[in-house]
Amino acid sequence: MKRMPLTLQGAERLRIELKRLKTEDRPRIIQAIAEARAHGDLSENAEYHAAREQQSFCEGRIKDIEGHLANSEIIDVTRLAAGGKVVFGATLELEDQDGGNEVVYQIVGDAEADIKSGRIAVSSPIARALVGKLQGDIVDVVAPSGTRTYEIVAVKYV
User: How far apart are CA 7 and CA 74, in angstroms?
Assistant: First the structure.
């Protein structure tokens, strides 16, 4: 099986979430199921069914995180010496050439991508267009919403 890249920070975020799921959420859900069972008839017990659904989601997420951590190659971005080149884990400052807006993205593994936090997946169209380019390059990014042109203002390995 191919190992997926994961930043050191991303692995730590996943470990923290896994610990919370196992030590806080799972026991709380088990308690909710026990309480709902005590109410009697399970076929018409909404609390029981809701708790079972939560349990299913929680166990699925635990399995997902354990799988990601087991099949990942953890990369310490601070040890990269790519000399201004856009690589996995790099944090980029981009200027949109069409609107002049500046955005900051970090290129991360698929499991840790979160656009609201500025973390884009290495497999995304924008990351694929930027990887291998250098600070100062102007890059056309073909995305589902159309082609955008960005200047790579800064590349950091933090």
Answer: 6
